[in-house]
Design brief:
By secondary structure, the chain is mainly alpha-helical. Helices cover about 80% and strands about 0% of the residues. The longest helix is centred in the N-terminal third of the chain and has 14 residues.
């Protein structure tokens, strides 16, 4: 970790400096720095969770988004689902479904339905997706 990042960390930790936290967030997301991301999530700065998710989404940083989803950040789950839907990344959507994010089940059901994969649509209905249930109705 470079000296600037260490100094920012100290400002956040010792003084609760939100400006330092915001700068640290930008650096952490830009560099996919998992240690700093963990620090910010653990620290719980006012700007950290959702701002981290938004920046990670802007950068297309799926690894950081997944880390944030694991930490319980709903904004990260939503942004990951949006990116996965836009790119057709069904594996990311399935990961979100497996981790309890129902919105991803809806999105996965729509993608599966478009290609005629009724088995996946049924699985998403079984997961509780209302969209999948509607798609399965005659």
């Amino acid at each position: 970790m470079d000296e600037d990042r260490e100094a920012l960390r100290r400002l956040v930790e010792e003084q609760g400096d939100e400006e330092a936290a915001a700068r640290l967030i930008e650096l952490a997301v830009h560099d996919s720095d998992a240690d700093t991301l963990r620090f910010l999530v653990d620290y719980g700065s006012e700007t950290s969770g959702d701002r981290l998710a938004e920046l990670a989404a802007e950068e297309g940083d799926l690894e950081s988004l997944r880390f944030l989803v694991d930490a319980g950040n709903e904004t990260a789950a939503d942004r990951l689902a949006e990116l996965a839907t836009a790119s057709g990344d069904e594996a990311q959507l399935q990961w979100l479904v497996d981790n309890g994010h129902l919105g991803a089940a809806d999105r996965l059901a729509e993608i599966a339905s478009a290609r005629g994969d009724l088995e996946t649509v049924q699985r998403m209905a079984d997961e509780g997706s209302e969209v999948a249930e509607r798609l399965l109705r005659p």
